[in-house]
Amino acid sequence: MVRTALRWIVGGSSSMLLVSAQAHHSFRAQYDSTKTIDVTGYVTKIDWMNPHVYFYIDVVNAAGKTESWAFEMGPPHMLEQRGWKRNSMAIGDELEVSGTRARDGSLTANARTVRLRATGQVLGAASSEGQPARP
Amino acid sequence: MRHWRVAALLLAAALAGCDGGSSSATSAAPAAAGKPTPRHPDGQVRFDSEPGGRGHWGQASVSSLFETGVQVVMDENGLLANIADAPRVAPFQPWALALYEYRQKNDLKDDPTRACIAPAGPRHLHTTGGFRIIRDPTYDRMYVLFGGGNRNWRVVFMDGREPPNPEEVAGTYFGHQAGYFEGDTLVVESSGYNARFWFSNGGLPHTEALRLTERFSRPDFDTLKYEVTIDDPLTYTRPWTAEWTVDWVEGGEIAERFCEDHRTAVEGE
Amino acid sequence: MMRSVRFGSLLACATVVSALALSHDAAAQFRDLSQGRPAPRTADGRISFSGTADEVGNWEGSTANGAELIYPTPEDDPANGTDALPTNLSVEQVPFQPWARALFDYRQRTYLKDEPHVRCKPSGVARLFHTPYGLEILDLPDSGEVIFVGVGSPHSWRVVDLRATEHAADAPPTRYGHSIGRWEGDTLVIDTVGFADSFWMNRLGLPHTAQLHTIERISRPNFDTLVYEVTIDDPGAYTETWSGGFYLNWRSGNEPFDYLCQDNNLDPERLVGPEG
Hints:
heterotrimer, B: mainly beta, Lipocalin, 6-stranded antiparallel β-sheet, 3-stranded antiparallel β-sheet, 2 helices, 11 strands, 6% helix, C: alpha+beta, 9 strands, 11% helix
């Protein structure tokens, strides 16, 4: 089980936390809105590319094992309009990330918010979530 | 086994048109020779059709990218007839020459266009499929609409804006483009490219340091003159220039054809 | 033989079917078109689907807010307002052929995991109009065309010929189809045939066949609203013609940007649907 990180400190307005953006595809086909996750880890890779930015962090789980998590965000242009820069995070940065887990059971999630521990900045991830889960 | 047709390329002068099929779905009778350059009411050169007309830019006089003044023989895919000519194609840095030769010797098998990555940069302008250069009727910008590749487009902002800091924004396929006119020549300066595409069909390398200066002019109705300066100090030892012409296809429409319907590389390859 | 354009009869049929739709949930909050800034016009008085010299921007149809061809969709919450047209049909009202309804239901059950658009496949009809990241509309009277330029997947462009009055019989099937159009006052009316069947015509995946014939009507009742409505005439997939549409929103300040679906597209392998 992945150790749950401390809740992040909300530094900005609530509108920053869930910045819904229209997806170019079905969110629920990939992610399960009932399965959320909060992790803290160190950045190992950043793919600042379309159609979705991906970043990868190493997270130490409750058993002390290091897991590599992949997080999806929105497209670069949308992120850059929401306060991100391509160099906002760097390899080795410590992040607190909340997100929604992938349906395929992999260590993949759709990021909703990212807190950069070094600066305390909280950024929305231009997530395509925001629609009610299918009953 | 390489299959190529030898096409002798004489540079430093207007080149004869290559053979090869036109991409347009229809074509009308050719325009009268020597028609003057069309213009907008404000006098600016029209790079698209004249009022009441239709058409697009069609066949380029070259099929690949190489430095002006260099004489090499390549086929329509940019494959050298003689790999020993590789060092003369462009002023390579050593690593870039090695990579170019690798791509050539391996029949360009790693060409990203196989996965429908855009044939971006100057490559779009000699990829079969045609293109149009359209002035936006409302804003100070131009669009270049491509019929080749996956039928993409690029936008040239004409309002004098500075490009963003490439360290702060994503690397692009089509560049952050700023254009202006020098007389009747449209000059487009672009930067902010990523390195995930081949900007020539023969596999010329580039890095994110690439900067292009393109010059478009229309000396007469039927001729587009194109000149591009490639400036990438990480890849080439100095800036270098290539040039060619493109013929106007009067009355023709760019056929709708998407790479995605013909891709040869699948996901994950 | 040229295909005839059957505007009148198609619209009459669509009107009958649409009348059935005017009984949506009273809680639904449809857009009030009487509000808003007046739509801009060109110097010669024509309606403009673009911005002005002082205001750049472009259009975005948001499926997150109900911009779809039917109403309600599985994702709609009537209390939140909707970009669907008040005349949209519900799923039960759409006159599917049985196979088409079965396929549509399958696509919903599997959460649209097989969508071609996600795999960078260009998709015509409504899909272009509710793909995110912006839609530019170029009105080009000199060449007698309107060109739609889409930023999102597949970062391509679609041409409407305003000079032609008939379709060519030998036009090969394409993803965007062969479009001819005309202005009816301030409404752009587009007649399209010659569709391939290898795409989904909207995000929810309403089926179609190569027999599809659409009539799209695009208008701008105020500065910030674009109305997109399409009449679907496809006897292979539907027992009657029917119509649906949505509003696109003006996004002031938006400009076209670089985007390539094929860049690092990991979605196809991750679209697993409900089974995971």
